[in-house]
Design a protein that fits this description.
72 residues, mainly alpha, 0% strand, globular
Length: 72
Amino acid sequence: MSTLAPETAPDRALRQIVAECQADLLKYRSMVLANRKALGVHQTRVALRRLRAALTLFRAAVGADEIRLVRA
């Protein structure tokens, strides 16, 4: 996970966070589908938790429908 600078624009910060969460989800997808190893399942859950937290933090910029989709 990269560090965001304090002067990073909110839209850019959200895009970066979402991109990193997506990369993590894709990284562990094959591990989860192939053999459900605990590490893959754990890291998938962490990525989803980070994504939900980011969408909640930036909820003013993200529609409520999008947040509900991720929380489901």
